[in-house]
Amino acid sequence: MPTPSNVVSLSSARDARNLSTRGKGTGGPEDNRIEARELTGERLFVQITQSHDKELIGKTMACRAVDASAHGIKFLADDFIPVGCQLDLWVDDEARPGKFFLSGETRWTQKVGRTSTMVGVRLQDGLATDIESWQDSRPI
After folding, report:
1. Most buried among 5, 23, 128, 140, using CB within 10 Å?
2. Statement: residue 17 has pLDDT above 70
3. Where do the H-state alpha helices sit in 25-65?
4. Are the C-beta atoms of 11 and 30 separated by less than 8 Å?
5. CA angle at 85 for the pair 35 and 81, rounded to the nearest 5°
6. Residues forming beta bridges with residue 118, ordered by sequence position
7. Contacts of range 31-38, beta carbons closer than 8 Å, 24 or more positions apart
8. If you write DSSP's letter for every residue of 65-110 in order, what string do you get?
């Protein structure tokens, strides 16, 4: 009978991490991640600045972040936000001082319940944003 070992191979640890942090092997939108994300619960306000649906432009809503990386953020919104919308985001990070003003594009959405939507946003570089401070505040 083999003796149990405390040694874990790097490949099996990576595989376990990938299964727990990606779309759980479902082929979902999270399978396209290029960076590790940290779980978070930050409050944020989102304003739609560009959309194919002109009635959505200017709509602002309070949301809650689920996870974040240097170049992306996933959050839960009470209303639907279509793919391809340009957004302004004000993120209140309780673990770090101040708020971050960010811009991004909705890359994917997924209905949650009757009215809520999980939203994946790719953050964009911009001179008038706090993207550099945001990226510096994210773990590597």
Report:
1. 23
2. no
3. none
4. no
5. 90
6. 76, 110
7. 33/69, 33/72, 34/71, 35/69, 35/70, 35/71, 35/72, 36/69, 36/139, 37/67, 37/68, 37/69, 37/72, 37/74, 38/67, 38/68, 38/69, 38/138, 38/139
8. EEEE-SSEEEEEESS---TT-EEEEEEE-TTSSSEEEEEEEEEEEE
Task: Specify if 20 maps to a domain.
Answer: no
What pTM did the predictor assign? Answer: 0.72
Q: What is the DSSP letter of 125?
A: -
Distance of alpha carbon 117 from alpha carbon 131, whole angstroms: 24
Q: Is residue 132 part of a domain?
A: yes
Residue 9 lies in a domain: no
- How many independent structural domains does the chain possess? 1
- State which residues form the domain around 116: 38-137
Residues 6+ apart with CB under 8 A from 50: 57, 85, 86
In a domain, 31, yes or no: no
pLDDT in tens, 88-126: 999 987 777 778 999 999 999 999 988 899 999 999 998
Residue count of the chain, please give it: 140
